[in-house]
Design a protein that fits this description.
The structure is a single chain. The protein has helices at 2-20, 179-192, 198-211, 216-229, 233-245, 249-256; strands at 29-36, 39-46, 74-78, 82-84, 87-89, 92-99, 108-113, 129-135, 138-155, 158-175. A hairpin with an 8-residue loop joins strand 6 (92-99) and strand 7 (108-113). Helix content is 32%, strand content 33%. The protein is α+β, with helices and mostly antiparallel strands. Helix 2 (179-192) packs antiparallel against helix 3, helix 4 runs antiparallel to helix 5 (233-245) and helix 5 (233-245) packs antiparallel against helix 6 (249-256). The relative contact order is 0.10. The chain is elongated and about 70 Å long. The strands form two sheets. The chain has a six-stranded antiparallel beta sheet with strand order 1-2-3-6-7-8, with no helix packed on it. A four-stranded antiparallel beta sheet has the order 5-4-10-9, with no helix packed on it. The chain is built from six helices and ten strands, in the order H-E-E-E-E-E-E-E-E-E-E-H-H-H-H-H.
Length: 257
C-alpha cells in the first residue's frame, strides 16, 4: 500500500511538472459545452489514445470503476435539473465514472458522483454517488482513436451525450424542463417591461410556443394581445399561425391576408 501511495503521488507530481514546463500531454485536456433548451451542459475530460491497445477488459478492466478519461476524473456539470435515462439528477457538477461489463449484450453502469474534484478513481467513494444508471453500449466497426465526448440535441427539450473511444459508443439520453421555465420567464419579463415593449414579449412568447407546437391556446392568447397592443405584419402572421394550429383555418386565412 505504501508503494502504491508513493507511485500515485509521484504520478500526479510528474503530470503537474510536465504541464508547468509547457510540454504536450499524453492525454490532452478537452471540453465540450452545449445548451439544450435552457440547460447548459459542460463536460471536462482528458482524452487518451487507443494506440493499438486492447481497451475493454485490459486497458480498462471489466467490473471496476473507470474514470471515463485520463488523469483527473471526468466532470459533467448541469445548470438545471436533468433527467438522464429516466433518472432525475439535480443541477450541479459531478465526477463521471463508468463501470464496463464483459459481453457485448451487457449493460454498463454510468456513475455521477458528488465529489467532482478528484484524481482518477483512486479515491472514489460510492457513498457520494448522486446516481447510478444502466446503459447498453454499442460497438462499431469504425474506431475512434481518441476518447471524445459530444452533446447532441434532438429537440428543444431533449438530446443525448455521446462518449466514443475505440469501437465503443455510449449514448446517454436526457430530457430537460423547458416549457415551465419559458412560460415563467415570459411572465417575469411582462411584469418589468415598459408598456411600449410588451407587444414584442407577447410575440416572442407566441412564436416560441408555435415553433415547438406547445400550448396552442396560450400561443393564441399571446398573439392576440400582441396584435391588440401594436398590430404589424409579424405578430399578425403569428396570429394566423396560431389560428391555423387551432383548426380555425378561415380565421387564419383572413389574418394572413
Amino acid at each position: 500500500m505504501r508503494q502504491f501511495i508513493l507511485f500515485f503521488t509521484l504520478s500526479i507530481s510528474l503530470s503537474s511538472t510536465a504541464q508547468d514546463l509547457g510540454l504536450p500531454q499524453k492525454s490532452p485536456q478537452a471540453s465540450v459545452s452545449y445548451t439544450i433548451g435552457l440547460t447548459q451542459i459542460d463536460i471536462e475530460y482528458s482524452s487518451p489514445a487507443v494506440n493499438e491497445r486492447k481497451l475493454w477488459g485490459e486497458v480498462v478492466p471489466y467490473n471496476e470503476v473507470w474514470r471515463a478519461g485520463a488523469n483527473k476524473a471526468t466532470t459533467i456539470e448541469f445548470s438545471t435539473d436533468i433527467n438522464i435515462e429516466g433518472t432525475v439528477i439535480d443541477k450541479g457538477k459531478y465526477s463521471f465514472f463508468v463501470i464496463p461489463k464483459g459481453g457485448r449484450e451487457s449493460k454498463w453502469t454510468i456513475v455521477f458522483n458528488k465529489q467532482h474534484d478528484q484524481w482518477g478513481a483512486y479515491r472514489y467513494d460510492a457513498s457520494l454517488d448522486a446516481a447510478r444508471i444502466e446503459v447498453k453500449p454499442q460497438f462499431k466497426t469504425v474506431s475512434e482513436e481518441r476518447l471524445t465526448y459530444s452533446i447532441h440535441d434532438q429537440a428543444v427539450d431533449k438530446g443525448y451525450i455521446k462518449m466514443a473511444w475505440g469501437d465503443l459508443r455510449l449514448y446517454m439520453r436526457f430530457k430537460v424542463k423547458v416549457l415551465e421555465q419559458a412560460l415563467a420567464n415570459v411572465d417575469a419579463a411582462l411584469e418589468t417591461a415598459p408598456a411600449d415593449e410588451k407587444w414584442q414579449i407577447y410575440a416572442y412568447g407566441a412564436m416560441f410556443l408555435l415553433d415547438n407546437e406547445w400550448e396552442t391556446r396560450q400561443a393564441m392568447e399571446w398573439a392576440d394581445k400582441s396584435v391588440t397592443l401594436s398590430e404589424n405584419s409579424w405578430n399578425t402572421f403569428l396570429k394566423a399561425r396560431a389560428q391555423a394550429m387551432s383548426g380555425d383555418y378561415s380565421g387564419a386565412i383572413q389574418s394572413a391576408n
